[in-house]
Each structure stands twice: as C-alpha cells, then as structure tokens.
Amino acid sequence: MRYLLLVSHGTMAPGVHSVIKMLLGERDDVLSYSMEDGVSADAFVAGLEGVIAPIGPDDSIVLLGDIIGGSPLTNTLNLLTQKGLLAKTTAFGGMSLPMAISALMAIDDDLDDASLVASVVSEAREGARQVELALDDDDEEDL
C-alpha cells in the first residue's frame, strides 16, 4: 500500500486530514500526526511510532510536512530511517490541502514517483496565488 503521511506543528496535519475525510471520505491510506505546543521531540516520536505502525516493509510513503527543516518533518524522517522506510519515502515540505489532494489522486492513479512529485509540486505552485477581486460598487454579485 502507498500511504499519505501528514505531519506538522500544532493541529495543521490533523486539520488537513479532517478536510480530506470531509471531501473524499475515510481512507485507510491517510495517516496524520502533529507536534502540539509543549510536546518534546521524544514524545512526538513516541506517538508517531503508533501512527505509522500499520506501514509495513512492502509499503511506500508520501510524506507531507508543514516546514522543511522543522521538528515534525525532521523527526519523522529520522524515525522512517530507523524503521528502514526512508528509501520508500517521497517527502515534501510546505504542506497544503491542494498538495495533499494531489498526492492522493496520484496514489489512486498509481503514478510513479517522478510523476507524483511533478503533480504535487505543480499543485503547490498553482495553489498559492492571489485571488483577483473585481470590486465594483454597482454589482456585488461579481464576487
């Protein structure tokens, strides 16, 4: 199985996971865990071990973290290394809901790693842009 693993500071990862459930339904291949305020790196890793327990040696992982170099992502990568899963992991920073949905579509379509990366990175770039508003006092229905 190919898993989508979401990790973050605060409640971002569980929040993105919650929206995925709302939009796409419950999925066994989506896992999430976060480092909440005041939680040590050791406590985060201990909790994460339970979350990733379903991932076996024949599985692969698409990992989305909130901040490249942040504690949740780096500690997750360290744990995946210890578990022998790093070689089967494709990791991204800058997590967003569009990236997560794109990753799930790539997983569902069984895309190879290069195509998955291209899709997720493209969605990340396209998902962050200014919304141009046509503000006309006479016709508020344009919004």
Describe the structure.
This protein is an alpha/beta fold. The chain has one domain: Rossmann fold, CATH 3.40.50.510. It is built from five helices and four strands; from the N terminus they run E-H-E-H-E-H-E-H-H. The longest helix has 15 residues, at 113-127. It starts with a strand and ends in a 16-residue tail after the last helix. 29% of the residues are buried.
Content of β-strand: 15-25%
Structural class category: alpha/beta
| Biggest β-sheet strands, sense, barrel | 4 strands, parallel
> What's the order of the H and E elements?
EHEHEHEHH
CATH topology: Rossmann fold
Helix content: 40-55%
| Order of neighbouring strands in the sheet with most strands | 2-1-3-4
By CATH, the architecture is named 3-Layer(aba) Sandwich
Within CATH, the superfamily carries the name Phosphotransferase system, mannose-type IIA component
Distance between the termini: 43 Å
Number of DSSP E strands: 4
Shape verdict = globular
Give the class-level CATH name.
Alpha Beta
Radius of gyration: 17 Å
Tell me the count of domains: 1
What is the mean pLDDT? 93
Question: Can you summarize this structure?
Answer:
With 143 residues, this protein is an alpha/beta fold. 44% of the residues lie in helices and 17% in strands. The protein has helices at residues 12-24, 41-51, 71-82, 97-108, 113-127, and strands at 2-9, 30-35, 60-65, 89-92.
